Amino acid sequence: MKTETQQGESMVAQLRKIRDQISLEIQDMNSEQILAYFKSKKGLLPQEVWDKAKEHQTDLEQLNSDTLKDNSASNPPREG
Fold it and tell me: How is 26-70 classified by DSSP, letter by letter?
């Protein structure tokens, strides 16, 4: 029989603790204050990484939009 021992808190427990702490910190803030709060917090990744990901997402959305336009132009809806 295999027994498991946990040392410290599980990952889920840690994440719940973080979520609860953030909730307490922002509960009385308006939207502008909440935005300022999150901008002031240090993220896991540098801002450049998020900016690059945002640019990539915009490029993908544009490509998808262009593809949908091309498909709708070459394949008109069927009447049936």
Answer: HTT--HHHHHHHHHHS--SS-HHHHHHHHHHHHHHHHHHHHHHHH
Say how far apart CA 41 and CA 34 lie, in whole Å.
11
- Comparing 23 with 49, the larger pLDDT belongs to 23
Is residue 1 scored above 50 in pLDDT?
A: no
pTM, two decimal places: 0.46
Each domain of the chain, given as residue ranges in start order, spans 11-74
Q: Could you tell me the sign of the dihedral formed by the alpha carbons of 5, 11, 17, 21, in that order?
A: positive
Question: In this structure, what DSSP letter does residue 23 have?
Answer: H
